[in-house]
Amino acid sequence: MNSRNKMSMFCAVASMLALAPTAAADSVVFSDDTFPTAGWGFEVVGSGESTPSQVTSGGNPGAFRRIVQAVDPDTGWFFAFSKFGTNQSTRYVPSAQGAIESVDFSIQAQTVSVLNGIVPDLSMGIKQGGLIFVQNQFFSQFAGSWTTYSHSGLIPADFTCINGIGGESLDFSNSGAPIRFGFVSINGSFNGASTGGVFEYDNYQVTVNIAPPPCFGDLDGSGEVDGGDIGLVLLDFGPCPGCTTDLDESGEVDGGDIGLVLLSFGACE
Q: Cα–Cα distances in Å, from 95 out to 3, 91, 125?
């Protein structure tokens, strides 16, 4: 096709450019406000004891999770990881559900008592491929009444592995291993005294913000599907096997490919 004909076709489709909708990224929510013991897994990293249980009343409101913790003297950090869910339906599987853009975490907690005046810390926890990761920014759980602790927009760089050999990182891509979310009660013993206490948790929620898929039709990588992408299709118009502009893989760049670009028209989300 010569340049004049290509330009004529571009003009013919220009009036259609506003017809194509764009799709917004989705999200998946994991939440619990009753904390049945059978619905949560539990692991500890460090030297000490930690016992979780469900208390059926007195939460904010109703049932809640209580953790009684005692850390051995001078043993460093102690992490008690409460894992949401015990079956496959309570995991997030990136290969099936989509790459993760970020996660949001929220929980309510209160401290009932502490050993030797050392308050606990609280963090979001994630388990992936046998490794446990905690959020780098701990919350100091000072409050003696129900208090909300939350962070939004968390990405892999916001977490550190606590049971690896060093250098491990989370993989939020669609090739990453299945993920189980939760929260971590944290104590440290460095001064010859035991630490720990009684800590309580309610209204847990993690929101997985799913990354949008690669922007189909954004042939020039501008971050939006627009007239520039239509122009690239027109430049290759005709037989063109293997061309990136042959969006329907028909072996030819034609009106079908222009139609696919129009269907994706607008800013990539």
A: 43, 12, 21
Q: Residues 122-165: pLDDT tens digits? A: 999 999 999 999 999 999 988 899 999 999 999 999 999 999 99
CA angle, residues 239, 241, 245, in degrees to nearest 5: 85
Q: Which amino acid is at 206?
A: V
Determine how many CB atoms are found less than 10 A away from the CB of residue 69.
24
β-bridge mates for residue 121, sequence order: 140, 186
pLDDT in tens, 183-228: 999 998 888 888 999 999 999 999 999 987 778 888 887 778 889 9
- CA torsion angle for 102, 108, 113, 114 (degrees, to 10)? 10
The separation between CA 172 and the C-alpha centre of its own chain, rounded to angstroms, equals 7
Q: What is the pLDDT of residues 19-59, one digit of tens each?
A: 333 333 489 999 999 999 999 999 999 999 999 999 999 99
**215 to 44, 210, 248: CA distances (angstroms):** 42, 14, 15
Enter the tokens of residue 82: 């409460």
- Cβ(56)–Cβ(63) below 8 Å: yes
- The reported pTM is 0.74
Length of the chain: 269
Letter for the amino acid at 253?
A: V
Look at the block and give the residue holding tokens 């490919």: 257
Helix or strand run (H / E) with residue 179: strand 179-189
- Report residue 48 as tokens: 């000490």
